[in-house]
Write a structure and sequence with these properties.
The chain has 15 helices and 16 strands. The protein is of the alpha/beta class. It has two domains: 118 residues, Urease, subunit C, domain 1 (Roll), CATH 2.30.40.10; 315 residues, Metal-dependent hydrolases (TIM Barrel, Alpha-Beta Barrel).
């Protein structure tokens, strides 16, 4: 991480600059690329124009030309793509860490639905959402897929908070109209009401004068139990009509899996497909109980999984078969699942991804023989988890984020190993893999000193 060039400008606005630094990305599972001293040119629109590796033809000429033009900036530390969180329940942020001893269906009724009902108060929503977006950006989450509440005005506040802070986001008002599973005080009165509210949020997002592509709408049936057949059918038609993204929960727990099988006579994946909700733009949270046949169908449709390893430990009753899904060609990214996951950290999600895969590989019941205890070949390494949290999440959303390549948005997290109060310790003999793994396993918020989206440092006016 040699400081080869002098910085000619501040770091706040890197548009129209050529940036020298120590870059790490994982363009595919298990494949790490490091560009120590590499040059990344950012255009006026905040997208990467060119990437030049140190030692490659033209590197020295590019650096000298940029320096003469006063466009060369050097960033020290480790530079990684911004993190992509594929599953966030934005209104649940005040619930983080509460009630985690309860079964999912009880937790929702006792904590979640009463809290989400409070978002009828637009000022409460504004306060929570501005803090949430700011906190996530500070932790390196530059793109998020959000479930909001069922309130139109509050959901618009979430979109506004993302646009103001320059966080890429897909924002969806949750849709829930099944009286058998939703409380009287918190559900849509009719299919027409649910559709009208969803269209109203989409119209607000698409007409926002400052949006410029930062936020997109997403059709959001909460999960199969919360919606009537008529609602699911109408939402499938809406998704087909607008071509927008779809997000929902899928086969999260024994209860959720068994409910869907009993009601529809099919797996969650098959049911979503029958309603037109399984598309190239669909992201399904959890998927712990999807079968091989489900994976094949998902791969054919192009649907993705938001793997939430931390919340799965609390509520799922199982470990998602991540390696099997990847081998089947299913697109996968990571999610924190605030607040089912009691941490807003995508660093934590990566760490738990590796740990959960090891537990699935080895098994956890000490009374069973070692040979019968787990599912061999299920583990993944940290480089794969890093890919899922960056490029994998971008691929799941069909967004150009997560890699250092021409055409990608310059969404970047700087990790400073020497930051005051930081928790990283380097000893000078680390390989590329060990250096990145040390950062991802041991860096704390203090080490995450700068975040850029679209070439602009977040928190800067």
């Amino acid at each position: 991480m040699t400081d080869r060039y002098s910085a000619a400008h501040s770091w706040a606005d890197l548009r129209n600059r050529v940036v020298a630094g120590d870059w790490f990305h994982a363009p595919s599972p298990g494949r790490l690329e490091r560009m120590d001293g590499g040059l990344v040119e950012i255009g006026a629109d905040g997208r990467i124009v060119a990437v030049c590796h140190a030692g490659s033809e033209g590197h020295r000429a590019m650096a000298r030309a940029a320096a003469r033009a006063g466009r060369l900036v050097t960033l020290d530390g480790l530079l990684i793509p911004g993190l992509v969180d594929l599953h966030v329940h934005a209104p649940q942020y005040p619930q983080l860490g509460k009630g985690l001893d309860l079964p999912l269906e009880v937790w929702l009724q006792r904590y979640t639905f009463p809290l989400e009902a409070r978002y009828a108060d637009r000022l409460f929503a504004r306060h929570v959402y501005r803090r949430l977006v700011s906190d996530l950006l500070a932790g390196g989450t530059t793109t998020a897929l959000y479930f909001a509440s069922r309130h139109v005005e509050a959901t618009c506040e979430l979109a506004d908070a993302c646009i103001a802070a320059r966080q890429r986001a897909l924002v969806g008002r949750v849709i829930m109209d099944n009286p058998g599973q939703c409380p009287d005080f918190y559900r849509d009165a009719s299919v027409a009401e649910g559709l009208a509210a969803t269209r109203a949020v989409a119209a607000h997002i698409e007409s926002h004068p400052a949006n410029d592509g930062w936020v997109r709408p997403v059709v959001t049936p909460r999960f199969l139990p919360s919606c009537t057949d008529d609602m699911l059918r109408a939402l499938g038609d809406l998704a087909g009509e607008c071509g927008c993204h779809v997000q929902t929960h899928c086969a999260e727990s024994d209860w959720a899996r068994d409910y869907g099988q009993a009601r529809f006579g099919h797996s969650d994946i098959e049911t979503l497909d029958r309603f037109g909700l399984l598309t190239r733009h669909t992201v399904l949270a959890h998927g712990n109980f999807i079968t091989g046949a489900d994976m094949d169908l998902m791969a054919r449709r192009g649907a993705a999984v938001a793997h939430c390893p931390l919340s799965n430990a609390w509520f799922a009753n199982a470990v998602f078969p991540l390696r099997a899904a990847l081998e089947k060609g299913v697109r996968v990214g990571l999610g924190t699942d605030i607040a089912g996951g009691p941490s807003a950290s995508m660093m934590g999600a990566m760490r738990m991804t590796v740990a959960a895969s090891r537990m699935l590989r080895d098994g956890v019941d000490p009374d069973r023989p070692a040979a019968e205890r787990g599912r061999p070949g299920s583990d993944v390494d940290m480089i794969t988890a890093f890919h899922l949290a960056t490029a994998g999440g971008g691929d799941a959303l069909d967004l150009p984020v997560g890699r250092f390549a021409p055409g990608q948005h310059f969404d970047v997290l700087r990790i400073d190993p020497d930051a005051p109060l930081g928790t990283m310790r380097l000893w000078g003999d680390e390989s590329d893999e060990d250096l990145l793994a040390t950062a991802l396993y041991t860096a704390s918020r203090a080490n995450m000193t700068h975040v850029w989206t679209g070439g602009l440092q977040t928190g800067q006016a």
